[in-house]
Write a structure and sequence with these properties.
This protein is mainly alpha-helical. It has one domain. It is built from twelve helices and six strands. The model has no long low-confidence stretch (mean pLDDT 83).
Length: 245
C-alpha cells in the first residue's frame, strides 16, 4: 500500500519511458464517463427540447393582415432559458483532470487518479506507456475546451477581443454551431466507453498510426505500437522485475 501511494498508477515515476497501470486508467475513464453522458442530455435538451410556449390568454387580434390576407395575432410566447454555470464548472474541472494527468508530477493533483489507483489495488497491473495516453487526453482536452466555448461564447469572445485589442468575435451571439459540441460529446462518450468497458483506446490507436506514418516521432519503442505482443511481453517482463525489486 505504501508503494501504491508513492508511485500512484506509475510503474516507475522516475523512469525514462514512463508506464502507467491501464487497469486504473480504465477505472478512471469509467468514473469520468458520467460527464459526457450528463452533457449529452444537457445539449440534447437545449437543442431539441426547448420550444416556444404560447399563452392563449394573451392572444389578441391586431386588426391587421399580412400580404396573403392572413389575420395577424399578437400574444406572449415563452421559451425555456438555460443557465450553464454547473456545466461550465464541470467542464473546467474535467479539463483540469486531462491536463494534470499528462505529466508525472502533476498527476498527484488529480482526485480521480487517486480514486482509480485505490480501486485497482487488488487487480494485476497492466502496464502501458504514458505517451499514447497523453495524446488521447490531449484530444479529450480539445473536445472539452470546444464544449466550454459553446456554453460560454460571450466570455470566450471577450477574452479573444481583449488579447487582440480588436472586436474579432461578437459577445452577443452564439457563433459556434450546436452540432459541433453535440457531435463531440457523443464521440467522447463513445471513446470513454470503449476505454472503460473494452480497454480499447482510440487516441492510442491514432497515436500509433501517426508514429507509423512518420508524423510523430517517439523515442519510446513501446509507444510505437502499444498493442503488439512484443510490446506487451516487454511490459510484463519489466513489471516482474519491478515487483521482485
Amino acid at each position: 500500500m505504501r508503494r501504491l501511494w508513492k508511485n500512484l498508477w506509475f510503474q516507475d515515476p522516475a523512469a525514462r519511458d514512463v508506464f502507467i497501470n491501464d487497469t486504473a486508467v480504465r477505472i478512471r475513464a469509467g468514473i469520468l464517463l458520467a460527464v459526457p453522458l450528463f452533457l449529452s442530455y444537457t445539449l440534447y435538451d437545449a437543442v431539441y427540447g426547448s420550444h416556444w410556449i404560447v399563452d392563449g390568454n394573451t392572444i389578441r387580434d391586431t386588426m391587421d393582415t399580412d400580404f396573403d390576407e392572413h389575420i395577424i395575432y399578437a400574444g406572449q410566447m415563452i421559451r425555456k432559458t438555460y443557465d450553464y454555470t454547473i456545466q461550465s464548472w464541470i467542464l473546467a474541472y474535467v479539463f483540469f483532470e486531462m491536463l494534470v494527468s499528462m505529466f508525472v508530477k502533476t498527476s498527484y493533483l488529480s482526485p480521480t487518479i487517486w480514486i482509480a489507483t485505490f480501486l485497482s489495488r487488488r487487480k494485476p497491473p497492466v502496464w502501458k506507456p504514458l505517451v499514447p495516453k497523453r495524446f488521447a487526453w490531449t484530444i479529450g482536452a480539445t473536445f472539452i475546451a470546444t464544449c466550454w466555448v459553446f456554453f460560454n461564447p460571450d466570455t470566450f469572445a471577450h477574452w479573444i477581443n481583449t488579447l487582440t485589442h480588436k472586436e474579432i468575435l461578437s459577445t452577443t451571439t452564439q457563433y459556434l454551431p450546436y452540432w459541433i459540441p453535440l457531435t463531440l460529446v457523443w464521440v467522447c462518450t463513445g471513446f470513454m466507453w470503449l476505454e472503460s468497458v473494452l480497454g480499447w483506446c482510440m487516441g492510442c490507436q491514432i497515436h500509433a498510426l501517426m508514429v507509423k506514418m512518420g508524423i510523430l516521432e517517439e523515442p519510446c519503442e513501446a509507444c510505437n505500437d502499444i498493442f503488439s505482443p512484443e510490446a506487451q511481453a516487454a511490459r510484463d517482463a519489466s513489471a516482474k522485475e519491478t515487483m521482485q525489486s
